[in-house]
Amino acid sequence: MVTRTQKFKAFVSEPMGDKDVTAVDGINDELGLKLAAKGFDKAYILLGQFLLLKKDHAVFQRWLKGAYGASPSQAQRCASCLTDWCYAFL
């Protein structure tokens, strides 16, 4: 079961707009810097990758862990956050 943090609730409660990637639950400052260095500096860009991977949690989490060193917990929280955002706004 996923624990819904304040960061999670804040992110899924409103349109994404131009939020930084660190606004996504599971993305801390360290992971955010790694993502930003490769062009994933905004939440909507990370969402684009999630959508390109067909919203497949396992594939997205594997990508995030393999390419950027995210922990299993970070990858799971990020995928859940983006999924819930999609349910609310797409």
UniProtKB/TrEMBL annotation:
One of the record's GO cellular component terms: nucleus
Query: Do you know which Pfam families this protein is assigned to?
Result: SAM_BAF (PF02961)
Give GO MF terms, alphabetically. Answer: DNA binding
Question: Quick check: keyword Nucleus in the entry?
Answer: yes
Places the protein is found: Nucleus
The biological processes this protein is annotated with in GO are: chromosome organization
Per the record, the major location class is nucleus
Task: Give a yes or no for keyword Nucleus in this entry.
Answer: yes
Q: Which UniProt keywords apply?
A: Nucleus
Give the matching PANTHER family: BARRIER TO AUTOINTEGRATION FACTOR 2, BARRIER-TO-AUTOINTEGRATION FACTOR-LIKE PROTEIN
Instruction: Please identify the protein, giving its name as recorded.
Output: Barrier-to-autointegration factor-like protein
Organism from which the protein derives: Chrysemys picta bellii
Name of the gene encoding the protein in the UniProt record: BANF2
